[in-house]
Amino acid sequence: MTTITFLKQITPELSLQQYNEIPVIALDHHIGKAFISLQGAHLFSWQPKAQQKDVLWLSEIEPFTLGNPIRGGVPLCYPWFGGKQNPAHGYARNTLWKLTDYQIETQKVQLEFCLFSENHLIEAKINMEFYEDCKLTFTHYGQDPAEIALHSYFNIADIENIEVSGLPTSCFNSLIQQQETVPSTRKIAENVDCIYKIATLETHQINDAILNRCIEITHKNATETVLWNPWHKETSSMNKESYKTMVCVETARISQKLSQGEKVSTIISVK
Ligand SMILES: O=P(O)(O)OC[C@H]1O[C@@H](O)[C@H](O)[C@@H](O)[C@@H]1O
């Protein structure tokens, strides 16, 4: 169960709330609603005005506890992807970020969150723009090259009734640790964990026949996209049946790390 406590009004559209142990920035604007956890600068809900349902998926059993990554939304896996070091997918998603800037306009809202090191130096920034679409731009400031994944979980009606289209026809299947040839349009009927090499500007679609919508994901300056659904594989903070209503299409820089000052963006638009 999530206990939500109102902490502070920041502007008429922005407030600070507490979800169990986690501080959350809530946006309630006529363009839509968004919720961002300060742990991880983690956007976990985005519902533009025109949408009946959230664009992002969030686990119904998410406990919102400090130090544990949130299951759903857009975790920022940084400065590494996967389990090559501890914690898996980097420390940024388990660390408190700061809200460093906001601009509220009639047709657009911009929020900026920064991650600082122990000695108060900036490590990373994420700029979130909400209009009819949502654009997330990540900037890496550290001196050492770093990996990033904007690990977006999308909300779908039924995993067996969607298609992910526009993908390349070759991917690295992490489950069998092999490169494989796959159809460009993927239907998902089992555990999938594939890393695709992509061009610097690419768009992929999630066509959801039941919700009668298409989520379009544009990756800018990424080198990979990751397609993931755990299916029945036991996954923390997820119910057994949760896999049915989510699919991850991630925007990543894994093979070519980000250098100091480099940016990578995801633009999410619903048609
Ligand atoms: O359980 P986590 O750390 O959030 O990771 C979830 C998944 O994230 C995906 O990006 C990886 O490709 C998967 O291998 C991993 O299982």
TrEMBL record:
Instruction: List the active-site residues.
Output: H151, E250
One GO BP: carbohydrate metabolic process
What Enzyme Commission number(s) does the record list for this chain? 5.1.3.15
Instruction: Please give the superkingdom of this protein's source.
Output: Bacteria
Swiss-Prot/TrEMBL catalytic activity: alpha-D-glucose 6-phosphate = beta-D-glucose 6-phosphate
In the record, what terms sit under GO molecular function?
carbohydrate binding; glucose-6-phosphate 1-epimerase activity
| InterPro entries named among the record's database cross-references | Aldose_1/G6P_1-epimerase, G6P_1-epimerase, Gal_mutarotase_sf_dom, GH-type_carb-bd
Q: Which UniProt keywords apply?
A: Isomerase
Q: Give yes or no: UniProt keyword Isomerase.
A: yes
Q: Is the keyword Isomerase assigned to this protein?
A: yes
Any one Pfam family here would be Aldose_epim
Query: Which protein family is named in the record?
Result: Belongs to the glucose-6-phosphate 1-epimerase family.
The protein's name:
Putative glucose-6-phosphate 1-epimerase
